[in-house]
Amino acid sequence: MAWEQEGILGASMRWANKKGETAFEMKRKDKYGDPYYIFKIYKDHFNEEQRKGWPAVWALIRMNAAKLGLPLYDYREIADAVYAQLNLIARTPESRRAQRKVDETGDTVFVQDITIKVFDHATGRINDLTLGISTAPVNIVTDK
């Protein structure tokens, strides 16, 4: 197993297969409130050794996150919950005003906060997670 990390629950962690393809990644989010982690699992990139060891690694990650009181959320679950609300948000006057401002200035513009229900893989509870929705110029990458 190849680990690139800053401690077991550092700011970020990446687990790659021998080809260098990401098998698991986790990132700390704490810019606007209490810290939490989001993760992505790419089981199709696991090699045989990683597949066998994954249950123990995942149990350790979840146990440490729970012990430290750090929620652990699946990126795909968050994306699905946000996507379900985006169509409604796009029709709001705030969203239309924000899009006009983006078109005029080329800057990313905040639209509104939304609260979603998301499963905490560390504790097994469902939590409320508030996220800021913004609109950005089409030519920039916002997934950083």
Question: Layout of helices and strands, plus pairs?
Answer:
Elements: E1 2-5, E2 12-16, E3 22-29, E4 36-41, H1 48-67, E5 72-74, H2 75-90, H3 93-105, E6 109-119, E7 126-135
Parallel strand pairs: 4-5
Antiparallel strand pairs: 1-2, 2-3, 3-4, 6-7
pLDDT averaged over residues: 83
- Count of individual domains: 2
Spans of at least 5 consecutive residues with low confidence: 1-7
Range of strand content: 25-35%
Straight-line distance between termini: 25 Å
Helix content: 25-40%
Structural class: alpha+beta
Descriptive terms for the model:
144 residues, alpha+beta, 2 domains, 5-stranded mixed beta sheet, two-stranded antiparallel sheet, 3 helices, 7 strands, elongated, disordered N terminus
Characterise this structure.
The protein is of the alpha+beta class and 144 residues long. The strands form two sheets. The protein has a five-stranded mixed β-sheet with strand order 1-2-3-4-5. It folds into two domains: 69 residues, no CATH class; 62 residues, no CATH class. A hairpin with a 5-residue loop joins strand 2 and strand 3. It is built from three helices and seven strands, in the order ββββαβααββ. It is elongated, with a radius of gyration of 18 Å.
